[in-house]
């Protein structure tokens, strides 16, 4: 049975706080951008560069996709269309992206009911393990299980259980998660994109720029990750794809100066939206958080009130570590929104639920693939539908 491997695991950590029980499979523990919970805990004042040092240029690669967990063509084609054709396309991509997580939550829940008609303690315990496997988080899982235990006498099959689970999860999304930043209150609207290395900042910027361009906005991208020449090149390619302007300086130049110049250029050129790429890690003795604050200050010096958005990018495949990173960055810099990438590469899609219930910062975007149109505005209702 699919749960066999998990049952063998040590479950002592269940009563500990979520971030201390991050249960990282071996291959994920070494993923770039992972902040070990221990390391994160050691960082008193946010010294995020401490947790970033020693990481090479390698990128987090999405986990290999298990062909069995991919949606069949028939499944892709028979999905409901929430509203209109474009929306149906988005929903299909979302479902397809979440296929690994859904396999845990659906196939395995069906298996729980094999040979049973009623919910019993063993089944609840197994369900608890499933939710933790999907990285919903320990405390959140316990709350969900408690809710289900109360309703157990009314549940007589896996379909009903899934419906109850959906409503329990929906209830966790009641914070303002979809506050749109699309309205350009002051011009240019400046978004500063931050996050540890390899999480998908540059890719997300390319996708965001393409979206804005598609909506008729004039976009300018700032290459304020001057840490590596390759980073500037990568961003330049994305700017071309997204049909956006780019402001770039030489490798190792001052990131704050690049940001300042980009806002100045945007104001001169009548640009609607500026998106600033930043480094996820710097030379050993440079404090990342201080550097990010400096970028922020230089932007607001040129344009008071900017950046209007500070978007923290998190990698879903790092599971509970993404939550540690969110806390670390938010303590240092006021994060106004979150983007969670690589949901397509992981069975840990439950991290969306963990982050939304633990953080008071809206999850604005989710990345469900590497292509330019694989970024979606986070919609809790649609997400829950796609999860089961
Ligand atoms: N499958 C998948 N891959 C993604 C997604 N977003 C980004 N990636 C991949 O993740 C890798 C790292 O992405 P980057 O955009 O370079 O990450 P970064 O945060 O800019 O990295 P640094 O510049 O080193 O800090 C690339 O191979 C991307 O294609 C996503 O939503 N899904
Ligand atoms: Mg980058």
Can you tag this structure with a few keywords?
388 residues; alpha/beta; 8-stranded mixed beta sheet; 17 helices; 8 strands; 47% helix; 10% strand; elongated; binds guanosine-5'-triphosphate; binds magnesium ion
List the topology elements.
Elements: H1 4-7, H2 26-29, H3 37-42, H4 48-52, H5 73-77, H6 84-97, H7 99-112, H8 121-133, H9 138-151, H10 158-172, E1 189-194, H11 201-214, E2 219-223, H12 229-242, E3 245-247, H13 255-269, E4 273-277, H14 288-302, E5 309-315, H15 320-332, E6 337-341, H16 351-358, E7 363-367, E8 375-377, H17 380-387
Parallel strand pairs: 1-4, 1-5, 2-3, 2-4, 5-6, 6-7
Antiparallel strand pairs: 7-8
Helix pairs in contact: 6-17, 7-8, 7-10, 8-9, 9-10, 11-12, 13-14, 15-16
The chain binds guanosine-5'-triphosphate (GTP) and magnesium ion.
Residues 59-60, 62, 195, 197-203, 225, 231, 280, 341-342, 344-345, 367-370, 374 line the site of guanosine-5'-triphosphate.
């Amino acid at each position: 049975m699919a749960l066999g491997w998990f049952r063998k695991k040590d479950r002592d950590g269940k009563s500990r706080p979520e971030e201390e029980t991050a249960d990282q499979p071996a291959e994920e523990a070494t993923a770039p951008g992972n902040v070990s919970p221990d390391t994160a805990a050691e960082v008193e004042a946010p010294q995020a560069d401490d947790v970033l040092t020693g990481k090479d240029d390698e990128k987090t690669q999405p986990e290999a996709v298990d062909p069995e967990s991919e949606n069949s063509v028939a499944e892709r084609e028979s999905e409901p269309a929430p509203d209109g054709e474009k929306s149906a396309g988005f929903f299909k991509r979302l479902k397809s992206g979440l296929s690994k997580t859904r396999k845990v939550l659906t196939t395995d829940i069906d298996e729980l009911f094999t040979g049973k008609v009623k919910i019993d303690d063993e089944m609840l315990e197994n369900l608890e393990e499933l939710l933790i496997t999907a990285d919903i988080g320990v405390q959140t899982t316990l709350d969900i299980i408690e809710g289900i235990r109360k309703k157990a006498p009314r549940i007589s099959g896996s379909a009903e259980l899934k419906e109850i689970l959906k409503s329990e999860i929906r209830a966790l999304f009641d914070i303002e998660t979809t506050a749109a930043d699309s309205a350009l209150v002051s011009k240019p609207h400046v978004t500063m994109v931050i996050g540890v290395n390899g999480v998908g900042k540059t890719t997300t910027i390319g996708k965001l720029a393409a979206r804005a361009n598609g909506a008729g906005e004039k976009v300018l991208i700032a290459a304020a990750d001057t840490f590596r020449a390759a980073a500037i090149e990568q961003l330049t390619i994305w700017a071309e794809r997204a049909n956006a302007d780019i402001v770039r300086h030489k490798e190792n130049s001052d990131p704050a100066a690049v940001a300042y110049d980009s806002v100045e250029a945007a104001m001169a050129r009548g640009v609607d939206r500026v998106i600033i790429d930043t480094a996820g890690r710097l030379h050993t003795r440079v404090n990342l958080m201080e550097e990010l604050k400096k970028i922020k200050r230089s932007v607001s010096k040129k344009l008071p009130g900017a950046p209007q958005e500070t978007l923290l990018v998190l990698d879903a495949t790092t599971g509970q570590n993404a939550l540690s990173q969110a806390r670390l960055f938010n303590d240092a810099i006021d994060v106004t929104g979150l983007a969670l990438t690589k949901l397509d590469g992981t069975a840990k899609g439950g991290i969306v639920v963990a982050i939304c219930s633990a953080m008071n910062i809206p999850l604005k975007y989710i990345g469900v693939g590497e292509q330019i149109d694989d970024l979606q505005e986070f919609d809790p209702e649609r997400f829950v539908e796609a999860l089961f």
